[in-house]
Design goal:
The protein contains eight helices and seven strands; from the N terminus they run βαβααββαβαββααα. The chain has 216 residues and is of the alpha/beta class. The chain folds into two domains: 182 residues, Flavodoxin domain (Rossmann fold, 3-Layer(aba) Sandwich), CATH 3.40.50; 27 residues, no CATH class. It is globular. The chain starts with a strand and ends with a helix.
Length: 216
C-alpha cells in the first residue's frame, strides 16, 4: 500500500491544551497500529488556533488566506481524519464549527474520521454523539463507531477507574485503521473537474457527440 495520509485537526485554544494532548495520543495509537501492519503513514497536524483570524476572515470574505487554504487542502487530500475539539456550552467550539463552515462541503466526503472531544467534566461526554457525529455525518464523512472523550480527571492520578482513556483510544484507533487498511489509498476527484462527469479519458467532444447521437 502507498503511504496513507492522516490529517489531524485540533481545535484547542490554549497552548499546551488537553485537546492537542488527546489528538496526539490518538495519532500515536493510529500510527502504531498502521506500522504494525506494515503501512506507512504521513501526518499533517492542523492547529486551528493558528488559523483563527484567517477562519473569521474567510467567513467574511469567502476567500481563505494562503495558510488556511493549505490546511484545508491537507484535510481534503487526507485518507483519514482525526478531529478533536473542546466542548463549550454542551457542543463543539465556535472555532471548530467556523472552520467546518468554510471548508468545502465535499472535502471530507467518504473520509473515515476518528472523533475526539475534551471538557472539564464528564457531564459533556455525550457531546460527541449528539453534536459532533451528526455534523460529520451531514458532510458525508464516515465517523468510526467509537468517539473518545477526555475530561480533566482523565489526565490526573488515579483517573479512569471505570473506562481507562487509553483503552478507549486504542479501540477507536483500531476502528480507524481497519477502515483505512481495508480500502487502501484512493485519489479524490475534484467535483468540478472534467473527469468527475466525463470519466477517465473522456473529452467534451465525445460527450457532445454522444448527446448529438441521442438527440437523433
Amino acid at each position: 500500500m502507498d503511504t496513507v495520509r492522516i490529517a489531524v485537526l485540533s481545535a484547542g485554544l490554549s497552548e499546551p491544551s488537553s485537546t492537542r494532548l488527546l489528538a496526539d495520543r490518538l495519532t500515536k495509537a493510529v500510527l502504531d497500529l498502521l506500522d504494525a501492519r506494515g503501512i506507512r503513514a504521513e501526518v499533517s497536524v492542523i492547529e486551528l488556533r493558528d488559523h483563527a483570524h484567517d477562519v473569521m476572515n474567510a467567513m467574511l470574505t469567502g476567500f481563505p488566506a494562503q495558510a488556511l487554504a493549505g490546511a484545508m487542502k491537507q484535510i481534503a487530500d487526507a485518507d483519514a481524519l482525526i478531529a478533536v475539539t473542546p466542548i463549550f456550552s454542551t457542543s463543539y467550539s465556535g472555532l471548530f464549527k467556523s472552520f467546518i463552515d468554510v471548508l468545502d462541503r465535499e472535502a471530507i466526503e467518504g473520509t473515515p474520521v476518528l472523533l475526539g472531544a475534551t471538557a472539564g467534566t464528564p457531564r459533556h461526554s455525550l457531546a460527541i454523539d449528539y453534536a459532533i457525529r451528526p455534523l460529520f455525518t451531514y458532510l458525508h464523512a464516515e465517523p468510526v463507531p467509537t468517539g473518545v472523550f477526555a475530561a480533566a480527571d482523565d489526565w490526573g492520578q488515579g483517573a479512569d477507574r471505570v473506562a481507562p482513556l487509553q483503552k478507549r483510544v486504542d479501540r477507536a484507533a483500531r476502528e480507524l485503521v481497519d477502515v483505512v487498511a481495508g480500502r487502501g489509498r484512493t485519489e479524490k476527484v475534484d467535483p468540478f473537474s472534467p473527469e468527475s462527469y466525463l470519466g477517465a479519458g473522456g473529452s467534451f467532444e465525445s460527450l457532445l457527440g454522444a448527446r448529438s447521437s441521442d438527440s437523433l
